[in-house]
Specification:
Elements (H helix, E strand, L loop, with lengths): L1 H18 L13 H8 L4 E2 L11 E3 L11 E7 L3 E8 L10 H16 L4 E6 L8 E8 L6 E10 L3 E8 L2 H8 L1
Antiparallel strand pairs: 1-2, 2-3, 3-4, 4-8, 5-6, 6-7, 7-8
Helix pairs in contact: 1-3
Length: 179
């Protein structure tokens, strides 16, 4: 339990410093792969063939770059538009143990301080999913800060997964590069 408290404090400090540094985690719209590597201290690697169009442009960070809660971060970095989105998700947490709910609340509080109240905040079942997954989603559309177009924070159960997603306003241009 002490480790959870220490990780939670470390994580809140990481999020607090990351969101206040010119862009999420110091990353800014349009950064090249080389510029992202300088900020992160390592070069993200390509993920392989998830989608033939995106194979060369979807990158993953190594473990621990964004703290122990988020093992990896996926980013879309295209040649012309550069960095256009990043998405990170926790690993599954044991149901009934504190962790995901505390993490979700702390991240939500920090995002509210940074971007204001979310435009939408709702509980939604994922229709037709065999595990009856439910999710709490907080969504900021066009937060008018850091070149962002969309920020979402989601908490899914069962599995207690927390996902944080940032999309920059160059997203559409980046998607056109993939066609």
């Amino acid at each position: 339990m002490k480790h959870l408290a220490c990780y939670s404090i470390l994580f809140v400090c990481l999020i607090a410093s990351a969101l206040g540094s010119g862009g999420p985690f110091g990353l800014e719209k349009g950064m090249s792969l080389e510029e992202v590597a300088v900020v992160l201290g390592e070069t993200p690697t390509t993920v392989g063939k998830l989608d033939p169009a995106e194979a060369d442009y979807v990158y993953l960070t190594g473990p621990g770059i964004f703290g122990p809660e988020f093992p990896r971060c996926a980013m879309l970095i295209t040649p012309k538009s550069g960095l256009s989105c990043l998405s990170m998700m926790t690993g599954p947490m044991i149901s009934g143990q504190p962790g995901a709910d505390i993490m979700h609340s702390r991240i939500l509080d920090r995002l509210i301080l940074e971007y204001g109240l979310p435009l939408t905040d709702y509980l939604s079942p994922l229709s037709g999913h065999p595990l009856n997954i439910k999710g709490i989603t907080s969504r900021w559309e066009q937060p008018e800060k850091d070149g962002l177009d969309l920020v979402t924070l989601e908490w899914f159960t069962p599995g207690n997964l927390v996902q944080l997603y940032f999309r920059f306003d160059n997203w559409e241009e980046a998607r056109k590069e993939l066609d």
